[in-house]
Amino acid sequence: MPTADGTGTKRAADPARTPDAPAPDSAPVPGTTRAADPGARPDAPAPVPGAADPGVSPDAAVAPAGAEPAPRPYAGHRAAVHEETVDGFGTVRVLPVDPHADLDVVHGWVADEHAAYWGMTGFTRRQVLETFLHLDSLDTHHAFLAVKDGVPAALFQTYEPAADRVGTCYEVAPGDIGVHLLIGPPATADGARTGWSASLLTVFLGYALTGLDRRRAVVEPDVRNTRAVERLRRQGFEPAGDIVLPEIDLPEVHLPEKHARLAFLTRASFETNRAKAPAGPPGENSGQGRAAIR
Question: What CATH superfamily classification does 82-293 receive?
Answer without folding.
Answer: Gcn5-related N-acetyltransferase (GNAT) (3.40.630.30)
